[in-house]
Amino acid sequence: MTDLDITGRIHSRETFGALDGPGIRYVLFLQGCPLRCLYCHNPDSWRPLEGQEVTVGQIVDDVLRYQNFIRTGGITLSGGEPLAQPLFTAALLKQCRRHGIHTAIDTAGSIPLSCCQEAVDQGDLLLLDIKALDPDDYKILTGRSNTTTLELLDYRESTGRPVWIRHVLVPGYTLYPKKLKDLARFLSHYTCIQKVELLPFHKMGEYKWEQMGLPYRLTDTPAPSAEQVAEAKEIFASFGLPL
């Protein structure tokens, strides 16, 4: 079996993405995720055996159809959790890099590095979603520990390869000045961080929870105001972090 024959399961794809890394990008959403984030907008991507089965070769062929459009961007693997399918992710990104296509991985870092290091190394850029710095907050938001997330950030720092940090501003959970200052102070010690994206909480995926018969605990949680987002950005900027 060659890399092109390796199979994976995908949730969906976006051929002209502009929100998941630099430039215009082919964004592939992989199936399966061990986290149960309260604000997840793709809960239908959680179950690893659902979605569509594809081969690396099929996806590479499709990506190459758009190569002229993504030449200043690239491909981003998102999810779900792309590192939950490490063999598929590693093989697909390796093939894309052979064609000169920039690669990015959008991950919450929920998979131990010992299981996915080869896949991580095939990502020219890592988009690392840190849900919360405090372990208790992280457990409430996701149902899991943030240990592997922070270990992944440490690993990227050791390799000197770039990371964009993503952090969702959730009123009543993460949108407190002290929590934001603690996270910004922590991140300010990392030289690999090229950008911090502060993402306002939204409820665009709430209807999927309803369709799946799942309780959505954030129904009464408002989106942050423009002023709150601006204040959060000021906090991160005050620690010298690029926004």
From TrEMBL:
Pfam family, one: Radical_SAM
Record's catalysed reaction(s): glycyl-[formate C-acetyltransferase] + reduced [flavodoxin] + S-adenosyl-L-methionine = glycin-2-yl radical-[formate C-acetyltransferase] + semiquinone [flavodoxin] + 5'-deoxyadenosine + L-methionine + H(+)
Required cofactor(s): [4Fe-4S] cluster
SUPFAM superfamilies cross-referenced by the UniProt entry: Radical SAM enzymes
Location relative to the cell: Cytoplasm
The entry's keywords: 4Fe-4S, Cytoplasm, Iron, Iron-sulfur, Lyase, Metal-binding, Oxidoreductase, Pyruvate, S-adenosyl-L-methionine
Superkingdom of the source species: Bacteria
InterPro entries: Aldolase_TIM, Organic_radical-activating, PFL1_activating, Radical_activat_CS, rSAM, rSAM_sf
Cofactor binding comment, as recorded: Binds 1 [4Fe-4S] cluster. The cluster is coordinated with 3 cysteines and an exchangeable S-adenosyl-L-methionine.
EC identifiers of the protein: 1.97.1.4
CDD domains to which the protein is assigned, alphabetical: Radical_SAM
Gene Ontology cellular-component annotations: cytoplasm
Domain Radical SAM core: 19-238
Single GO term (MF): metal ion binding
NCBIfam families named among the record's database cross-references: PFLA
Family of the protein in this entry: Belongs to the organic radical-activating enzymes family.
Functional note: Activation of pyruvate formate-lyase under anaerobic conditions by generation of an organic free radical, using S-adenosylmethionine and reduced flavodoxin as cosubstrates to produce 5'-deoxy-adenosine.
PANTHER family: PYRUVATE FORMATE-LYASE 1-ACTIVATING ENZYME (PTHR30352:SF5), PYRUVATE FORMATE-LYASE-ACTIVATING ENZYME (PTHR30352)
Protein name, entry field: Pyruvate formate-lyase-activating enzyme
